[in-house]
Amino acid sequence: xxxxNVLESFKNAMSGIVYAVKNERNMKIHVMASVxxxxxxxxxxxxxxxxxxxxxxxxxVLVCELxxxxxxxxxxxxxDVYHPKVKIIKDVAAGxxxxxxxxxxxxxxxxxFDKLVVFIKNLIVY
Length: 126
Prior knowledge:
CATH architecture: Orthogonal Bundle
Helix content: over 70%
Number of strands: 0
Order of helices and strands: HHHH
Shape: elongated
Mean pLDDT: 94
Distance between the termini: 61 Å
Structural class: mainly alpha
């Protein structure tokens, strides 16, 4: 199943992303949160470094969710009955997503909190 050219590789990669967004509830949640964070980033005065950190953090969460989805699909394909090691595989993959999301919340707090307070104060004053 080797791709014949680079365009086919990109098409397959996009198909994987679309699959995850369409079929995985948590991926939908992460995408919506990412869109919200990006919109908030446009409203607040962020430095280039802050923008880079936000983009990398959003990407980290989405990539972890994609890997989690791939692991779940692969394990479900290989094993059709409950097995304790399958549970471990799924739990560890989900743990990676959870950890990346918690890190993202922490980074979001560090970057956005003070700026958001000033933004809200300015809205109230006017």
